[in-house]
Amino acid sequence: MHEPGLRHRQLVAAARKFPPIRTAVVHPCDDASFCGAFEARDEGLIIPVLVGPIAKIRKAAEQANVSLEGVEIVDVPHSHAAADKAVAMARNGDVEALMKGALHTDEVMAAVVRPDTGLRTERRISHVFVLDVPHYHKPLLLTDAAINIYPTLDDKRDIVQNAIDLAHALGIASPKVAILSAVETVTPKITSTVEAAALCKMADRGQITGGMLDGPLAFDNAVSKEAAAAKNILSPVAGDADILVTPDLESGNMLAKQLVYLAGGEAAGIVLGARVPIILTSRADGTLARIASCAVAQLYAHRSRPPA
Known about the structure:
Blueprint lengths: L5 H10 L5 E6 L4 H12 L3 E7 L1 H11 L7 E4 L3 H13 L5 E4 L4 H9 L12 E7 L7 E4 L9 H17 L6 E5 L10 H14 L7 E6 L1 H5 L1 H6 L12 E3 L3 H13 L4 E7 L5 E2 L7 H18 L4
Parallel strand pairs: 1-2, 1-4, 2-3, 4-11, 6-9, 7-8, 7-9
Antiparallel strand pairs: 5-6, 5-10, 10-11
Helix pairs in contact: 1-11, 2-11, 4-5
């Protein structure tokens, strides 16, 4: 029997081998976001820098019964200003990650993607869930279920590359990437099958590196060797995927939540493709999911550091 949350606890243990990263916590003015940051601090994963209205931060600390002694606080008047200030700190190298607090994801991402003052790189920004699913034999990455609504083929190239880079940071040397659709054959009437085949050819030509791609694959063929064998699919990826790439945000979001709420999975996740990793926690996340998300960001940040 699989021990729930075991793989996420293993991620946290792996991250503890590195020093904690300075993380701007954006508008930590409710109990959930405040406690999440300090739980990760206590695990040795991050050094939280609280960015928001100081009066609200102190009230949240009081309600959570957490001491602010020795904690750096950057006082700004409201959530929009908190997002802008946190992004500016990341641009200046003052912090190595961002963590969403008590504000909408759109507020954080609007500051991140702003052309002149944001954190964009030449890579498309995307989100990756890191899932511990009891009935699957290893960690499972799923992308993109939170940022890109209807990604183009070019967007998907970056989405795949971001996920591969994260897999490397998590210790997966050559991740197996399943490009999902409704069927496993290229069917012109289903655009996602054509794009899946194109992504695989882009990997053959070196436009995507570091992973092994196959697609289109239906979900069952991606995660079940028995299902793949029944359909005579000969592929090292089928039934053994490390990364699932969904056609769009709608299908990705539904699949991620099904794996959590019906299959008993635990989900951590971060946003990649910006200058620093961004931890997007949800009010519905439990303690382990919040801590594991910080561990994922910490491992990625250390891998992304330039050599000394």
